[in-house]
Amino acid sequence: MSFTLVILAMVDILEGIIKALQLIVSGDPTLYGILYRSLLFSGSAAVLATLWGTPIAMLLSLKDFRGKTIIKGFFNTLIGIPTVVLGLVLFLIFSKSGPLGFLGLLYTPAAIILGEAVLVTPILISIMTSAIEAVDPEIVNLAKTLGASESQTAIAVLKEALNGVLLSNIASFNRAIAELGVALLVGGNIAGSTDILTTAISRYTARGDLDLAVALGILLMIIIFGINMIVIATRKLRWLSILGKSPQ
Amino acid sequence: MQLWEKLIIVAILATIVVVAGTIVYLNYFAKRRLFISTTTSLYDTGLLDMIEKDYESTHNVDLQIVAAGTGIAIQHAKNGDADVILVHSLSMEKTFLEEGYGVNRKIIAYNFFTIIGPENDPAGILGKNATEALKSIVAYGDRLPDQSGATKIWISRGDNSGTHSKEQSLWKEAGYNYTLISQKPWYASTGSGMGDTLNVADQKSAYTLSDMGTYLKFYKDRIISLKALISEDTSLLNVYSAIAVKPDVPANKSIHEQINFKDAMDFIQYLVSPETQQLITNYGKDVYGQRLFFGAVETLKNNEQPEANWIKAYAFINGYECPPQYRSNYDELYTGDTGNG
After folding, report:
1. How far is A54 from chain B (nearest CA, A)?
2. What confidence tens digit (pLDDT) does each residue in A165-217 have?
3. Closest partner CB to A151 (pick from B2, B256, B258)
């Protein structure tokens, strides 16, 4: 009896997955709209975080100043901030009754992009800092001996640490696309404008539209697997770092 | 200038571009936006999807619907983050109006809550009224051999929503202290929307209070197997209203300058128009075999009995649909609302 029930339940699940795959193959506009927004917002957030984080990571790894360890520890701690806590804080800031309410950004894509950028900046800084620190100090000396300016030396070091820099970008994007709390609270999960993969999965599950939820889940997993494959491939591609070493 | 200094300038510029770009786009290029904070039941049933499509096809306005639950919707409105709210909790609506945040309340629809539970109905509530049913559930819960808290027989929304508020008043009507009931080992609170709560109740074969619309959608789509054991009891009446957020709230004028009052009122007028009322009443009838919502405007206007009296007894404030001190222009919305409810 219970065996039959298990089989029936499995058939139900399979049916759901098949329907989800049909949605994916048929190019359902709702589904692909959500996918597009997810990629766009997380991609923009990763770019913004790179712009914010690179100078900070360079300072932390190349300069010596007091309190450096504390700042590094601070960013390391922030890596684990629960997304929903950050989402709540940003909601209070972006709300019209909050300090940045006059900008009118709550429930807009910009709020999600900024929020996710804030979320992933610590992870980017931490990985990039370690990567730059791991570069042989001789490179700096060599560059200076060859008459490179301070900026040229910094660029040489960044090239040397290219693998780590790329890894930090990819890890940022990964965290941004998989997070729920920030996008839900500051984006509002508004259909067709601020709903992304994770928030839409949550909504369609609550609404009982499980086929769509499963389809979105499959797309999200494909993206995340894809990203991890890229990370593995990047680590193996030694030529990237060789390219960085080529004489100017 | 060092490289990192240049990079910081680039980063600041990029941030400004994102923020300023969004503001310019929204103010000069995008359609006007109307923020609607709504109870989950109107959204999860798909009713608002249909209304949004219909409204946007004839109006040059972009509806931004945030589904939250009555308590959060009211909080959004107080923060200035919503222009109009769709809610279903008389006590919360009353406080909202009295505190001076809302104006021009209109009752738009009604249906019934239902107490649902497992088909074998272990507490034996079938055929009872809501009060008796809750008493049976308490008796059954207290008789359970397992009082460790592992067995749950009642699942509550617990999210300060309209349904949660209704649940609390039902416990009170049945003669219980809600705080004590919510501490019973067999009582569980999900703190989430109706859909999530239905899923939990179904997994645990427990009883719960649901709005009819969401329940029917989940039941007909075979997502849950719980049965509607009690419905159409007048004490389970569920009345939905729309309230516009007051553009010049005395409490904090500066934050409410951006409230889109004009479009909010236009949307409320659209909701109470005979055509939209017909859409609401017919919604889901062909798919679910019965109506999910009933338009309330014609019922009140024509004083159809007994429904009009139920609505008046349950959802009127001091005899009014919207007492005169909480109205702002738009008198044509309240021609029959003379305080004789």
Report:
1. 8
2. 888 999 999 999 999 999 999 999 999 899 999 999 999 888 888 888 999 99
3. B2
Question: What's the distance, Cα to Cα, between the start and end of chain B in Å?
Answer: 75
DSSP string, B144-206: -S--SS----EEE--SS-HHHHHHHHHHHHTT--HHHHHTSTTEEE--S-HHHHHHHHHHTT-
If you average pLDDT over every residue of chain B, what do you get? 89
* Any B CB within 8 A of A154 CB: yes
- pTM of the predicted protein model: 0.87
- Every domain of chain A and the residues it spans: 30-245
Q: Which domains does chain B have, with CATH numbers?
A: 8-111+238-334 (3.40.190.10), 113-236 (3.40.190.10)
According to CATH, the superfamily of the domain at A30-245 is MetI-like (1.10.3720.10)
The two three-digit tokens of residue B296, written as one number:
């309330």
The answer to whether residue A113 neighbours chain B at the CB level (below 8 Å) is: yes
The answer to whether A129 faces chain B, any CB pair under 8 Å, is no
Contact status of B67 with chain A (Cβ, < 8 Å): yes
Alpha carbon separation from A193 to A5, A108, A180, B40 (Å, rounded): 41, 8, 16, 18
Interchain contact, B79 vs A189, CB within 8 Å:
no
Nearest to B235 by CA among B188, B167, B281: B167
The DSSP secondary structure of B246-279, one letter per residue, reads PTT-TT-TGGGTT--HHHHHHHHHHHHSHHHHHH
Task: Answer whether B81 touches A (CB < 8 Å).
Answer: yes
End-to-end CA distance of chain A: 74
Collect all residues of chain B within an 8 Å Cβ-Cβ radius of residue A88.
none
